[in-house]
Specification:
This protein has 188 residues and is of the alpha+beta class. It contains one helix and twelve strands; from the N terminus they run H-E-E-E-E-E-E-E-E-E-E-E-E.
């Protein structure tokens, strides 16, 4: 059977058109997704400029010796400063997968005021508790613990900004068990 050159040319043009259209549609989908992500990023940056970080949700992680990551030492700190004139920060700490029936301490270190660069360099650790009184976090028989701590920061001027990071240490050995990344905080 002899092939008609016009028919072959039309078929080839049709196939090329389909391929180019698909690539164009794929490009448009990718471009739209990238644009959506960029808009979300800009919105988050705008929000952080207009809504200073008065409250933090801090994740603490430790060295994992288990093959199951769900068994690794972890903690979560809800760091909240209510808009009140007393300038009290509530520090609700929860820890998991630590030694059972053991005492730990929550500490924080802050860099110089108003030098916020996202790089926590301070190693001047302050043990946190109930006001100025350090308070232990006692774990139960499963290695879980929680404590409601607080700190009065009346002496720090409103608007002050800090790079801040946290760690939980063993009360007996002072070994760091879990620690956080660097966070930024602003005093109300």
């Amino acid at each position: 059977m002899k092939k008609n050159p016009i028919y072959v040319s039309l078929l080839l043009a049709f196939v090329i058109t389909i391929i180019v259209s698909c690539k164009k549609e794929s490009f448009n989908i990718d471009a739209r997704e990238n644009l959506k992500e960029e808009i979300k990023s800009l919105s988050a940056r705008k929000s952080s400029l207009t809504n200073p970080p008065y409250d933090l949700n801090v994740t603490l992680r430790g060295e994992c010796t288990s093959e199951n990551e769900d068994d690794c030492p972890t903690g979560h700190l809800k760091f909240r400063q209510d808009p009140n004139p007393e300038k009290i920060i509530d520090l609700d700490i929860k820890v998991h997968h630590l030694l059972p029936n053991h005492e730990y301490l929550l500490q924080r270190a802050v860099d110089a005021a108003n030098v916020v660069d996202g790089n926590c360099t301070s190693t001047t650790w302050l043990t946190l508790g109930k006001g100025l009184t350090p308070q232990s976090i006692l774990t139960d028989g499963e290695g879980k613990g929680q404590e409601n701590l607080w700190r009065n920061i009346t002496m720090i001027p409103s608007g002050s900004k800090f790079d801040i990071h946290f760690q939980v240490i063993d009360k007996v050995t002072n070994a760091v068990i879990i620690s956080s990344d660097c966070y930024q905080y602003q005093v109300r």
